Amino acid sequence: MADGELTKRDFEALARFRFGIRRYLRFSEETVRSHGVAPQQYQLMLALKGFPGRDWATVRELAERLQLRHHSVVELVDRAQAQGLVERAPHPEDARAVRVQLSGDGERLLGRLSALHRDELRRMDTALALPTFEDGDGDDRR
């Protein structure tokens, strides 16, 4: 087999991993919708709570984390704020920027939803394990 070619086992591993990702994403979408939240709103809340070193972020930082355009994040924050999930506050060092942070209701909802997501990931365990691939010598590698 030529170096770099994929084996049947490699394709199966990729397909199994892709299936696990899709199963998890479907679970997530259905779970958050059943709690009255759009999937992107959950992702926004998680990005805020999980932001490194602090519990708030700017719209620019959120756009990077969510891989969305700036104006899309502004609209997402507007909708989440209208639902009482997030709040805007003045940025402590940059008067041109705004801090986005979770509200008390957003914190509580995120806690419930994230616990459900954690439990689902525990149930899925090996379905989301990174696949291993065969190299040209038949050895497995990541």
UniProtKB/TrEMBL annotation:
<dbReference type="InterPro" id="IPR039422">
    <property type="entry name" value="MarR/SlyA-like"/>
</dbReference>
<dbReference type="InterPro" id="IPR000835">
    <property type="entry name" value="HTH_MarR-typ"/>
</dbReference>
<feature type="domain" description="HTH marR-type">
    <location>
        <begin position="7"/>
        <end position="142"/>
    </location>
</feature>
<protein>
    <submittedName>
        <fullName>MarR family transcriptional regulator</fullName>
    </submittedName>
</protein>
<dbReference type="Pfam" id="PF12802">
    <property type="entry name" value="MarR_2"/>
</dbReference>
